Amino acid sequence: MRHAIARLGALAALLAVVGLLPWLSRNDPALTVLRAKSAEQEATPEALDAIRADLGLDAGPLALLGRWAAGLLRGDLGTSWVSGYPVAPAVVSGLGTSLTLMASALAVALLLAAALCAPTVWRGARGTLGEGRPGGAIGAALVACPDFLIATVGLIVVGVWLGWLPTSGWDGPANLVLPAVAMGIPAGALLGRLVGDALPGAFDERWVALWRSAGVTEWRIAFGVLRRALPAVMPQFGMVVVAVTGGAVAVETIFAVPGIGRTALGAAKSQDLPLLQGCVLALMCLGLTAGALGHLARRAMLGSGLHDAALSPPPPPRNASGPRQYAVPAALAAILALVVAWGLLRDPLTVDVTAKLLHPSWAHPLGTDALGRDVLARLGHGAARTAGSAVAVCAFGFVLSLALGFAPRVSAGVADVANAVPAVLAGVLVAAALGPGTAGAAVAVALVSWPNLTAHAAALTQEARAASYLTAQRALGASPAWITVRHVLPEVAGPLARHAVLRLPGTALAIASLGFLGLGTQPPTPEWGLLLDESRAYVEVAPAAALAPAIAIGCLAALTVSSANLARLPRRKAAYV
């Protein structure tokens, strides 16, 4: 009951903020609606007054919210301010399109996640996993691939050059392929990395050795380990569903797919308040449903062990020591530092139209863009805005999630609602209040990125507290605070830190995607997402300029994952005595 009240309160607060959007933006909503309806019509005082009277803007935001809520109780989502048509059919149509695209993208994601985890499952079931842990470099690189860049490359290569698939529209199954692949690859890589991170610990639990000595088949061991490892990341599946459905605005824009994300973005830009509120409500319902199903699936997979304190923690990780484990992160850090430092020594704003779209040379090591600006300089100067903002957002999410993980009831309802809000929609709301920019993009991503970490922290905390050895600690008189600090916190902090670091490239991409859509850093200021957007039109002519920021983000992803593997500190043996 408490969770339901929290969810309803958070949902009402979000819808109220959406209802205040025209007033938060400090722009005249009547003028915006007039421009959306007819860009050629002159904005005379009479025309603006007529629009205000027709929409009831003179009554103020509270009256409009009350009128919309009253209609909602009758099943009426209102009428579009721009088109004049009922909102409900447009929302249902956009949601149906997005759900179809989501199902296709999830199929791609699950296949990719299974492929990434299959070697670990196979070696673990045979008892040949070894002393080290899988680094997941391929998964990390795929996580770092921006969906809008995959979509752009797929459109050009597969759609234009080869002519195998349609490049736009929504006419049949063929239109599903390129968008589904673009959206499914990063989502599947993230799921594969999270499951892959949980598998080695599950294979090291004592019951696996007992099963193997008892002659249990490898297939049954693999199935049992998957059932043990999946619950900790099961809430992430529901969150991925929402992210794929509502956060694919860039992909829907590139392929002209009439999904609900693209509909919400268009409604926000035109300040079509009833349509925007209807889209947000649909996304909220989808997010709450997906989150509830994920939690139910997790509890069903854990069974009675969650209540009977019968879960066993994994033994200490057996990391191989030596200088080799530091070679990869050191090399990647050196490469990124060299590129950024070299770029910082050059001018990113100098325009030379006689030197536009040049190929790499000594004068311009990464070539030039469409205005003749040095790509290396813009890459170096944009690193602080993209990578620096992503580090700050991930650090904030880790600290907040670690605290909320020990009190999941405090944030359960708010987290479900915040998770259902696409980063693009948050970017629209923040940009309306603060204006577009790097800081606003970072704030928007921070507002919607913490639920993923919080859900993971809560799942890890619940399983750590249900460990059987803690019963002996309580019987010996250990206080709850001592158990939390001495045993539960080390069990949660390590995996959560690796998850936070793993999300660093995705956070950088989320910030970059807002720049890509014009909601983040504004030109001519360099930022990696903006660089990708600017180079998208001439990727065929100057591929180096388009690939440079993508490769930089890929190197950042590999660096973060290899560094996360170094963070696998051994747990204290006393916890397992």
TrEMBL record:
ABC transmembrane type-1 domain boundaries: 379-560
Topology of the protein relative to the lipid bilayer: Multi-pass membrane protein
Entry keyword Transmembrane: yes
Membrane-spanning ranges: 101-125, 137-164, 176-196, 237-255, 275-297, 326-345, 387-408, 420-450, 541-564
Protein's cellular compartments: Cell membrane
Keywords of the record: Cell membrane, Membrane, Transmembrane, Transmembrane helix, Transport
Annotated InterPro entries: BP-dependent_transpt_permease, MetI-like, MetI-like_sf
Recorded superkingdom: Bacteria
Main location: membrane
Protein family membership: Belongs to the binding-protein-dependent transport system permease family.
Cross-referenced PANTHER family: D,D-DIPEPTIDE TRANSPORT SYSTEM PERMEASE PROTEIN DDPC-RELATED, OLIGOPEPTIDE TRANSPORT SYSTEM PERMEASE PROTEIN APPC
Protein name: ABC transporter permease subunit
